Amino acid sequence: MTLSRRSLLSGLAAVPVAGLASPTILRAASHSAAETAAAPTLPVAYHSFQIGSAKITALLDGHFLLNTGQINGFDQVQADATLEGSFYRIKDSEMSLPVNGYLVEQGGAVTLIDAGTADLFGPILGGLEAALRAAGKTPEEITTVVVTHLHPDHIGGLIAGDGTARFPNAEIIVGQGEYDFWHDDAVYAGVPQENRGFFDIARASVAPYADRLKMFEGEADVMTGLRSVPLPGHTPGHCGFMLETGAAPLLIWGDLIHSTALQFARPNWTLAFDMDPEQTVNSRTRMLDRAASEGLLVTGMHLDFPGLGRVERDGDAYAFDQAPWQFSL
Ligand SMILES: [Zn+2]
């Protein structure tokens, strides 16, 4: 299947069905001409750090504006208490939500974990490729792209504007269950026509890689030094990856946390795009607990850039001890 970017976007002009939120509910800040004129320049940001034998580079794709109305269980008083004394702000019921990808160079592999949004969400997102190039790598040099799940902010960057593979020399690694869900024709048939954008993007993004698609199930060594960690709930096959570095392992946890500002302190708050909220919270609390107990280094696709840190317990909730921009390990 080849879909043009235009037809993908028209498929996104949709409202959420139960548990299947459309990307349009995340407002990228420049949908109107007036906003476009005033839109800030997309920053190009990357940050590299070495852990053991692995060089990891955080790549900033950009920022969504998350409306607090899309947070299940949101309570303004509790939010104010959580944010008090911090730099975080809720302005006009919106908060900034970053989108990151991670480049891992280890052995001979040049691996990208999640590919950002490309042009699906407007001009304050889609910077991942520019960040990759600024970090000294081209899409042609990527040998593997590993995806945490098939949501558009993670796979939009897999394809170019004409629907061809953005990473012409890469194999794609994706969970079998995640792939199967988005390719299930019975599920697709049950989704109203106007809400099929997520499915169309998931299918179109992996289609150009059909002859170099590698699937895994459950906990598995998906490539040398990288093991899958199932974290279902946000999507049926959502998972993180544990990177073995020869020194401290690094857990790259995908969308386990969306809001650094709120969800460590309020792990029961889910988002409208968590397809199974109860399972989302179960996976989150189990993983946060393990990360805190083991002192794991963690990073994630919506943690505040560059997103490296450790989880701490804070009463019956958690906190994030983010590594500063300049640091040594
Ligand atoms: Zn996401």
List the helices and strands and how they pair.
Blueprint: H1 5-11, H2 33-38, E1 46-51, E2 54-67, E3 71-72, H3 76-83, E4 94-106, E5 109-113, H4 128-134, E6 144-146, H5 152-155, E7 171-175, H6 176-182, H7 185-190, H8 197-206, E8 213-216, E9 221-223, E10 226-230, E11 239-243, E12 250-252, E13 270-271, H9 277-294, E14 297-299, E15 309-314, E16 317-322
Parallel strand pairs: 5-6, 6-7, 7-8, 12-14
Antiparallel strand pairs: 1-2, 2-4, 3-13, 4-5, 9-10, 10-11, 11-12, 14-15, 15-16
Bound molecules: zinc ion.
Zinc ion (ZN) binds next to helix 5.
Describe the protein's architecture and organization.
- This protein is α+β, with helices and mostly antiparallel strands and 329 residues long.
- It has a domain at 5-30 and 42-239: Metallo-beta-lactamase, Chain A.
- It has helices at 5-11, 33-38, 76-83, 128-134, 152-155, 176-182, 185-190, 197-206, 277-294; strands spanning 46-51, 54-67, 71-72, 94-106, 109-113, 144-146, 171-175, 213-216, 221-223, 226-230, 239-243, 250-252, 270-271, 297-299, 309-314, 317-322.
- Strands 1-2-4-5-6-7-8 form a 7-stranded mixed β-sheet. It has a 7-stranded mixed β-sheet with strand order 9-10-11-12-14-15-16.
- Helix 1 (5-11) packs antiparallel against helix 8.
- The radius of gyration is 18 Å and the shape is globular.
- Residues 1-35 have low confidence and may be disordered.
- The chain binds zinc ion.
- The site of zinc ion has 6 residues, from helix 5.
